[in-house]
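From the thread on structure requests for the teaching lab: each student submitted one protein with a one-line request. Submission from student K.M.:

"Model Abasic site processing protein from Streptomyces exfoliatus, tokens only."
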Amino acid sequence: MCGRYTSTRGPEDLTRLFQVTDWNPAETLAPSWNVAPTDEVYAVLERTTRDGGDEVRRQLRVLRWGLVPSWAKDPKASSRMINARVETVHEKPAYRRAFARRRCLLPADGFYEWEPVKDDATGKTRKQPYFIHPADGQVMAMAGLYEYWRNPDITSDDDPDAWLTTCTILTTQATDAAGRVHPRMPLTLTPDHYDAWLDPHHHDTHDLRALLTQPADGRLDARPVSTAVNNVRNNGAHLLDAAT
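Reply posted by the TA:
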């Protein structure tokens, strides 16, 4: 799975890297070295214009991590839907419509996974976090889905609180450095596949799944880091310090 990641690039960098045309400066997030479920995160997506025309605009949006299906009675289950397995995403009721129509990219510097380690002195098992990231330091464009949920307690569609937009990360079987730590890992896309993945008119699920790749083509570094990251309230670059 991918249950925690880092996202420290600012909107100026992200709009350039992903060729974004629409971004609202009011939607600006602080850098985070400990992105956790239900946090707000940056997402790159494409939407048609409101006038109903064929023009598609690429946007940088702020979404909440943890997908809430449109048919959900309430958003409480979102923390359990932070990942969608690529093997079944096109079939599962919670994800299949979003996979066909509402795909996004979630920029990241890297992600965390935990390995159970036995303490020889105490005999107890503890969780050692690892930071897994592209060896070349490039941005990870994690494959994601997004969904809209309408709050039934708010009568007006024009009220911004009437709508909640959430997202999830697609995962696959882990390999290379990530596989030595945890059996699952996020899927990513290369820049030459951004257009096809984000295109809201592209609905062929077989073709879409073929676009997905391992982060950095499997060229990943994994290093043990401070256990401070285990607490979601901790944040800052020191979380990437080598474990001692």
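TA comment: The mean pLDDT is 92. Helices lie at 11-17, 96-101, 176-179, 194-198, 205-210.
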